[in-house]
Design goal:
With about 350 residues, this protein is an alpha+beta fold. The chain has helices at about 5-20, 35-45, 50-65, 70-75, 75-85, 90-105, 115, 125-135, 145-155, 165-175, 180-195, 215, 280-285, 340-350; strands at about 235-245, 250-255, 265, 295, 300, 305-315, 330. It has 2 domains: about 5-220, Orthogonal Bundle (Endonuclease III, domain 1); about 235-350, Nucleoside Triphosphate Pyrophosphohydrolase (Alpha-Beta Complex).
Length: about 350
Amino acid sequence: MPRPSVKSIRDELLVWYDGHARTLPWRSPPGELADPYAVWLSEIMLQQTTVVTVGPYFGNFMARWPTVEALAAASLDDVLVAWQGLGYYARARNLHKCAVVVATEYGGRFPDTEEGLLKLPGIGPYTAAAIASIAFDRPCAPVDGNIERVTARLHDIRTPMPDAKPLIREKAALYADAHRAGDFAQAMMDLGATVCTPGAPACGRCPISFACEAKKAGDPAKLPVRAAKKARPERAAVFFWLQREDGAVLLRKRPERGLLGGMTELPSTPWEGAEWPSPDEVAAAAPVKATWLPIENEAEHVFTHFRLKMRLHRADVKAAKLKGVDGFWVHPRDFADHALPTVMKKVMKLAR
């Protein structure tokens, strides 16, 4: 029996989308183009993050900075503070940088093609394709995690990930079409999020199950095939809670480039080896010479590529002894005004 045509698959999925599209704050109803600024903002936020998590952040950003020009005029510190909790802070830095470029070099208008969008800071192939299709109805083939899963099952792609990605992108491109391009891309996303789910796909409710090769094979839940995860390496660091008589605590900024770039942190030993730093290493990294008391408990934070074990040492000092100390002073009641990543909030809890 011949495989169903691409057109028949597209048509059935679009009919399903018209009745089952998710209501999302950045999305326009089926058949209508979305605001490019809202699409761009949501797509950057959704990288490595879930829809449920992003919703409140998106609403807050749109309320504070309703246009790309408004976001461009904001300070990077304000953007980083508003981003707290979303993680992967390079996205926030690139978000602000991109807003400045669009506002100053493009007259506040996003380019309407993949090629044009790829020239902007922080926009890679997937994000460019998503914005071009959803905001401008360009016949592109964005492939996020949901579309990846749907496509792998639809075409019964058994090559383990990530080696399967080029073939998945090739198959997904078959469905790129100028007719309702944005709706089709979002339909694929919604199908993966609500029907063709990772653990237990609801094939009985799938509008394109008639064309699904993995369903015919009888094991769609096994796809895409995932390679075994490698164990994350461990690192260990000691952090320093230095408190003045007035209750203020010493903080500092991380370098603009690299992990958590531009974020606020407690001073610490380097985040390098798996073993706890030696007493000499701790003393060398301490912001001042003082009577440092170790806090009994420990904390832990998991980054993408490593697991960080954390201990906290505390000292109370008089202001007169703090000449030339590197950093700035913030009272704990004002911590919320600073761009503190989740890892810092975890280790700070040890002090309380």
